[in-house]
Amino acid sequence: MPDSDSDATGDSGVAEYDVIVLGGGPAGENAAAYAIAGSDRTAAIVEPEKVGGECSYWACIPSKALLRPGHVLAAALGLPGIEAAGPDTAEVLRRRDEFVHAHNGDHDDSSQVEWAAQQGIEVIRGAGRLDGERRVRVGDRVLRARSAVVLATGTHAAVPDVPGLREALPWTSRDATNLREIPKRVIVIGGGVVACEATTWLSALGAEVTVLVRGDRLLTGVEPFAGEYVASALTAQGVQIRFGTRPLRVTRPAAVDHGEGRIHGGAVTVHAQGPDGETTLVADEIVVAAGRVPNTDGIGLDTVGLPGGYVEVDDQLTVSGVPGAWLYAVGDINHRAALTHMGKYQGRVCGDVISARAAGRSLTGPRYRAAADHHAVPQVVFTDPEVAAVGLTADAARKAGHEIRTVELDIAVAGSALARDDYTGRAALVIDNTTDTLLGATFVGPDVGEQLHAATIAVAGRVPLDALWHAVPAFPAISEFWLRLLETDRSSLPSGR
């Protein structure tokens, strides 16, 4: 339990904890748990919505629950002698609801609160804000941290400043992952991960989807061939992708907020500018997947001399520009790697740093620095086909000054042929010529996300290619493509190297 006493500024009943975390998502949960593990230190998580955060209820978990049935169906239809009907929408949504603990239109976070209690973490409901050094206000309550305050407030969906778009009450990712009814016609704005995944499950559930992409390809953060594979597959499923197209204005006279995941009123009209001029599109719903905005408004950054927006940190997740090494930021809010698993990783590093500083231990050693943020960030896009990537793309590696070579080939091994008759995929490696180690890897194909961790270990551990020759892939597994990549690379090198 926290200590309470009078504060020097006149506040009475100030509750003291060793660690206070603003934000109860996975990053904040990990930071709190690691900071107090194996000690008598105390921690509190301040959360205005649901403990478990965006990932548990509105992002990773529900989106993958919606995507998996389509993947399984495609895999089944890729084999002869198997007939399968389309997904049962009601059952797909029921299973999704089980994962997000949806009951009576809300999400139940009691299991997450119970987990926090088991870790010795107190959950405080409400919107927390900084109030000077080591101080946090939650409504009328004042909290004080003996060791650290951790900012883990995450981000929310951005809605572009397009005339009429906000008034049309578009769906954001929260609506798309928690959909209660399937719009017949959907317009998706964006070409990134959220846009591609939402398009995948909406199409699989029967919606007619049109995607408006400002640029000339999907998934600009990975190797170009990956976006090409996804675009080709979506197009084959009947999705219309309009590249070089941006919305000019949106009208929806009968816009009504019927609740999360429900169609928000009547038809929506989008006037868009494309390569061939202005065009008009009409749909039953519009999904905005155009980036994220940090949840930093109103959290008191100004009280510690910080501007708004994303919060800059060092590799120990300590906030830059705030003296005393007491303020930290983990997860999306620091804009280093906006992925749940990377936020959790940062939370673990942050918690270890807080624990070591509180106990007076040395901070030497790799466990006290978030090194993976710089060169070994893994990501899976759960489209069909999946995209799995880690480390640097070839373009990014060259821009960073590396002398590189690349190897790229189709995934065509015994394991992929046995997996399904229609298996198509591609794999690529980015290799540092100076050290002969991997800088990056990209795989595209069915279920390639399960192949990514081997590449992540190789990139993070800077494993020489000579050593990878002795990591023998099992036969007949799809992972045999690793051997083919190494063979292709060896055959391209001068004799004797």
Task: Describe the 3D structure.
Its EC number is 1.-.-.-. One of its GO terms (molecular function) is oxidoreductase activity. Helix 1 packs parallel to helix 9, helix 3 packs antiparallel against helix 4 and helix 3 packs across helix 7. With 497 residues, this protein is α/β, with parallel strands linked by helices. The model has no long low-confidence stretch (mean pLDDT 95). It has three domains: 178 residues, 3-Layer(bba) Sandwich (FAD/NAD(P)-binding domain); 125 residues, FAD/NAD(P)-binding domain (3-Layer(bba) Sandwich); 108 residues, 2-Layer Sandwich (Enolase-like, domain 1). It is 30% helix and 25% strand. Strands 1, 2, 3, 6, 7, 8, 9 and 19 form an eight-stranded mixed sheet that branches. A hairpin with a 4-residue loop joins strand 7 and strand 8.
Quick summary:
The chain is of the alpha/beta class. It contains 15 helices and 24 strands. Strands 1, 2, 3, 6, 7, 8, 9 and 19 form an eight-stranded mixed beta sheet that branches.
Global structural class: alpha/beta
Mass-distribution shape = globular
Any idea what the CATH architecture of the largest domain is? 3-Layer(bba) Sandwich
Please tally the β strands and state the result.
Answer: 24
CATH topology of the largest domain: FAD/NAD(P)-binding domain
Which residues sit in consecutive blocks of at least 5 with pLDDT less than 50?
none
Number of spatially distinct domains: 3
CATH class of the largest domain: Alpha Beta
Beginning-to-end CA distance, first to last residue: 64 Å
How many strands, which pairing sense, and closed or not: the largest β-sheet?
A: 8 strands, mixed
Oligomer: single chain
Determine the CATH superfamily of the largest domain: FAD/NAD(P)-binding domain
Number of helices: 15
Radius of gyration over C-alpha positions, nearest whole angstrom: 24 Å
Residue share in helix: 25-40%
Question: Overall pLDDT, averaged?
Answer: 95
Strand content: 25-35%
